[in-house]
Write a structure and sequence with these properties.
Organism (chain A): Prauserella muralis
Oligomer: heterodimer
CATH superfamily of the largest domain in chain A: Aldehyde oxidase/xanthine dehydrogenase, molybdopterin binding domain
Radius of gyration of chain A: 28 Å
Distance between the termini of chain B: 60 Å
Bound molecules: FE2/S2 (inorganic) cluster
Number of strands of chain A: 28
Strand order of the largest sheet of chain A: 3-5-1-12-9-10-11
Number of domains of chain B: 2
Number of helices of chain A: 19
Shape of chain A: globular
Helix content of chain B: 25-40%
Largest sheet of chain A: 7 strands, mixed
Keywords (chain A): Molybdenum, Oxidoreductase
Largest sheet of chain B: 5 strands, mixed
Strand order of the largest sheet of chain B: 2-1-5-3-4
Shape of chain B: globular
Distance between the termini of chain A: 49 Å
Protein name (chain A): Xanthine dehydrogenase
CATH topology of the largest domain in chain A: Aldehyde Oxidoreductase, domain 4
Structural class of chain A: alpha+beta
Radius of gyration of chain B: 16 Å
InterPro entries (chain A): Ald_Oxase/Xan_DH_a/b, Ald_Oxase/Xan_DH_a/b_sf, Ald_Oxase/xanthine_DH-like, AldOxase/xan_DH_MoCoBD1, AldOxase/xan_DH_MoCoBD2, AldOxase/xan_DH_Mopterin-bd_sf
GO molecular function (chain A): iron ion binding; oxidoreductase activity
CATH superfamily of the largest domain in chain B: Beta-grasp domain
CATH architecture of the largest domain in chain B: Roll
CATH class of the largest domain in chain A: Alpha Beta
Number of strands of chain B: 5
CATH architecture of the largest domain in chain A: 2-Layer Sandwich
Amino acid sequence: MTEQIGRRVPRKEDRRLLAGHARFGADVQFPRMAHVRVVRSPVAHGTVSRIATEAARAQPGVIDVVTAEDLPADLRIPVRLHVEGTDPGERLQPVLASHTVRYVGEPLAVVAAEDAYLAEDAAELVELEIDELPARLDAGSGDDEVVADFGLGYGDVESAFAGAAHVARLEFSVQRHSGVPLEPRALTVDYVPATGGVEIFGATKVPGFNRRVLAQLLDVDESVIHLHAVDAGGGFGVRGEFYPEDFLVPWLARRLRRPVSWVEDRAEHLVAVNHSRQQRHRLEVAAAGDGTILGLRDDVWHDNGAYVRTHGVIVPELTLSMLPGPYRVPAYSGRVRVALTNKTPCGTYRAPGRFEGTAAREQLLDLVAAELGMDRVELRRRNLLTPGELPHTRAMHTLGTELVLDSGDYPRLLDRALDTVDELGWRELVARGRAQGRLLGLGLSLFLEKSGLGPHDTADVEITSTGRVRVHSGGTSLGQGIETVLAQIVADEFGVSVDRVDVVNGDTTLQPFGTGSWASRSTVVAGSAVRGAGRAVALRVRELGAEVLEAAPEDVELADGVVRVRGAATARALDLAEVWLAAQPGSPWLRDGEPAGLSARHRFAVDRMTYPYGAHVCVVEVDPGSGGVTVLRYLVAYEVGRAVNPALVEGQLRGGVAQGVGGALLEEFRYDESGQPQCTTFMDYLMPTASEVPAVEIVLCEDAPATTNPLGARGAGEGGLTGAGAAVASAVSDAIGRPAMTGLPLDPGSVLAALGTVTGPAAASADGIP
Amino acid sequence: MKDQHLVTLTVNGREHELVLESRRTLADTLRQELGLTGTHLGCEHGICGACTVLLDGEPVRACLVFGVQADGREIRTVEGLADGDELNDLQQAFSRHHGLQCGFCTPGFLMLAEAYLAGGGSADPGEVREVVSANLCRCTGYQGIVEAVTEVAARRREQAAKAHD
Ligand code: FES
Ligand code: FES
């Protein structure tokens, strides 16, 4: 069997998804299931004086109505990703609000009924008396509740700025938007009368952490809580964190002693699930006359919404720690103030902190180049870290790890991207368009990513009765294709095809030590764990096989799923099912005290991340009449170290670009002055369709295998998004002849405003790629 | 008392008699009454297209149609595309072109595309892109979807032309 790693193997997930046989959270149904509807605050800020539930209770089919009074006192959801030195204290989100509501959409009560329609009817009859208070809606307005204020940096920034020939300054803002997976959240919970435990379907991302939190909040042993693997309709950072509903639904199942189903609707999703991205940056760069960066400063206001949720203040931390990007920045200081506002609380969205920071930094670099009259590419080339300078340590910590840029060749990746742009003739395309008087622009951004966060993950591999290879991994399937990737990794240990491998992700009983899928870590960390477990089982297969074949272990080989004596083509061979049989209890081949079965557990631990990197290039056209921006061409160059499945890596990058284009041009959670959300349907929250997303050229680089894991892989979950806001902004500013844009989204209004100060089509940029 | 109606739905060629409340959507009817959970709900307000099914051959959003409105009519859902274990040409093309990731939008795109193909849809990628822009996908960036539908359109037209000769 040829190696499976590195091949474009068709996905194992596809068949069930294409046939309509997948099982998403809302597809799991039990007899006598109660249906839950959450009653949410209709105001942004207020004091709750009364919640009257009698009318709702009196409705036919209503089983129960619950408010904070019915719950144990002051239940709050803890932080999963703690940043040292910060303390969210009183601002952790309660499971149900009792006295004060702090955003529209905050859960206040829960109705359980025999049917979802009845639950929704009854929820409307829950009467809320809330005295409205003034809503705080802007971070950095002067009247702020700052929940964290911290800095990161290194080097002597003061002297860098004092001695600089040139200082460029830019204010750049990024709007509130988020992951918005196509499947809303859904939880089905079955109650187990014998143990008082719960079987949970639908919480997909970090099941191990969620089980721990739920056990603590319910005050039960973790062993009576079982989170099952289900399909999930996209994660993007927001799905599967521990939300109030993740307590309420299991708690209700125990209270009612029956199965309970909760399916979020889209309007709820858009106000309840983590928002993200909203930041305002004030950046300054000190440069020598030749464009060499001497120092960098950033002062960030981060709007975190009403509470600190499971992500704590990790997004602001990542913003600061990743801001210097792939460049040689001798001195850096970043400060962030995390402000609470009366809007939906925030968490991570794919490429958290990097989408925002990359857009701000890259626009700053475009500005410096313009101010110094330099070519934008030349400026970047001058400041990119070279292979000889790696590994490069920045005296900062992020996600609890030391920031060491492991290896790579950043200038080479830039060359490969630009060579491809030349081959594709994009510069000519822009020039031709401009000659016709159209507003075309070419944009470029470079970025640094991070992936493969530890500290560990665990995997089990076993051989089953028909000789199949079964994997119980600690990752979770969010649609990214991780089942296929893990199958490829383990298949090579036995020389079988992925068709002989079954992967179960995210089941807390089958894999109690799993740490989940997030931060582009699964291929790297879960993959390395699976490889280790597979390798251990393969060794056992060879040992036991040798025993049966009456050969020395070093004389047998395992290939194509068969153990045979090396070089002896005619000798007896054993397939995996036969070796499995030899490992059964009572088998004459098992020695005293030797465990039965063919299985192994492996824990992979790593204390550092690996840092992938890449470039985005795009061509846009601006309509001077409407201010509308059309993305005509798009390219991503990305260093993935080693692609386990190149097709899936490309898919990750393409999907990221689509979301990035949405974030650059369309998507925004807007609020009115009283804090009412204005985007609670897909009519108002605009996600890109096939008409807005161009085909994406991919330059997939495997020039610099990661040194932090045995696969050499770097994660690929986020790089399609990281540079997108930056590249589109760069292209728009090029199209309209401005040195830099001042924020996202580049919606018609802001583009027209920027256009207002220029006359006629843009002057062609001084350099070739702007 | 609830207003209940006795209706007959033919789903994927099979007839079902059901008692339905008039406000129950076709999507909920398929998913809950008939256990056909391949039809997904992404918005329940007619924008995302995840719930697309064919009603007498026409693509409709099953979240916007009431079950009772389908009385006496033919419904086709994603579960009816494969022939036993054998995925149809469009399903296979989606897999080949990596036209799905999480797969939540996929049933809707498949049904939308089936209607387009059944109407003799052209294999022009621009036109296909426009057709599939009726639905939302959050994962793939649409490229694989456009490629898959375009390829099948070309192949089915070829087959139709041959059958004509
Ligand atoms: S669920 Fe019907 S269109 Fe979105
Ligand atoms: S594949 Fe996930 S929404 Fe389309």
